[in-house]
Amino acid sequence: MTSLLILNGPNLNLLGTRQPDIYGHATLSDVEDLCNAKADALGVTISFAQSNHEGALVDQIHAARGQHDGIILNAGAYTHTSIAIMDAVASTEVPTIELHLSNIHAREDFRHHSYLAKVAVGVICGFGAAGYPLAMDAMVQHLENRA
Ligand code: DQA
User: Fold this and answer.
1) What stretch of H or E contains 139?
2) Where residue 71 sits, what CATH number does that domain have?
3) Please, what's the b/e burial string for 75-102 (b: 16 or more CB within 10 A of its CB; e: otherwise)?
4) What's the domain range around 92?
């Protein structure tokens, strides 16, 4: 069965209370529920994780190799700064979709640049929590097209 890792970076544990005008009112647990419902509908399994630490995210991406068929990655602010996470995605070669709740291109200039976009299959942003199931659809489609 297809297995996806849904990996969330720094400050996403605060969803629901963190700047709800930008990120919405759904908590990370609500997002996980959405993803579980989508996984059931798609007939895939998921692992859902969050870390505030760059190295821990790198470790989880490494561990995905051989364990998961695809990664949905909301790396939070590390998107804009982390060559280490970009290298981890490139090195493990597990297809990865970059995801953001907010439309990073409609925000501050420093959010317009993404290291991850260089190595991602594609990028989804601006759809709030609904972006997660959208990304799962997109990843399953991508994996089917590759097969
Ligand atoms: C984010 C966008 C990033 O710029 C920001 O640093 C985040 C959340 C999003 O989901 O919209 O932490 O990744």
Assistant:
1) helix 131-146
2) 3.40.50.9100
3) bbebbbbbeebbebbeebebbbbbbbbb
4) 3-146
> Which two three-digit tokens encode residue 74?
């909301």
| Total domains in the fold of the chain | 1
| Whole-angstrom Cα Rg for the chain | 14
Q: Which single residue is written with the structure tokens 């949905």?
A: 72
pLDDT tens-digit map of 93-118: 999 999 999 999 999 999 999 999 99
Q: Whose CA is nearest to atom 13 of ligand 1?
A: 76
**Is 80 considered catalytic here?**
no
Is 98 within 8 Å of 78 (Cβ atoms)? no
Establish whether residue 70 lines the binding site of ligand 1, counting it when its CB lies within 6 angstroms of any ligand atom. Answer: no
Reading the block at residue 83, the tokens are 């060559």
pTM of the shown model: 0.97
Residues, the chain: 147
